[in-house]
Amino acid sequence: MTVTSAIASFAVVAGMLTVMPGLDTALVLRSAITLGRRRAFATALGILCGVLVWGVAAAVGATAVLTASHLLYDALRVAGAGYLVWLGVGMVRKTLKERGRAASGDAAGTADAAGADATWLRSWARGLGTSLLNPKNGVFYMAMLPQFIPIGAPHLLMGVVLAAVHDLEGLVWFSALIFGTQLVRRWLNRASVRRAIDAVTGTVLVGFGLKLALADG
Asked: Which parts of the chain span the membrane according to its record (predicted)?
């Protein structure tokens, strides 16, 4: 396998993984609809940074420890599950609070709550944390990456290149989602729709977290 064919083959596999509906897509869509384009790109960038970290870790063999150590895997799995449940519960609670403010006519309070959730760094950190605390990402890279590193090729450099290919595909996909969402954001940005989106996304995150917590490592 040549370097070119390895990159092309990995791009096909990573591309299929990228467009599969999942947690990353849900987070980016939620950010695009409720927080706007800049915050959505911040969330996407955080996710992509996490992917790059996992790719580099797999290339240098760090995730071999994660694969070999059941205790470490379980610790990361529980931490990731707790993080997802925390995010999801936070979104559902925010929805309930905003619904109460809307019922009482407290528009200023709703605006303040939205502003507190809308910092660029916070959105980036949310995407990064979600990516890094998902042990499935590490296992995927540990299982897949070595198969696409040609004999004699530098592992670290190839790991960075392959992770960068995955990131590029993710950036294209997330950009399509974000710009597509902006076309109908005027309708989606209504308070009732935002609350429904937060409630659904929060429920999905809690579901992902519980599934991860209860999974047989």
From this structure: 6-29, 41-65, 71-92, 139-165, 171-188
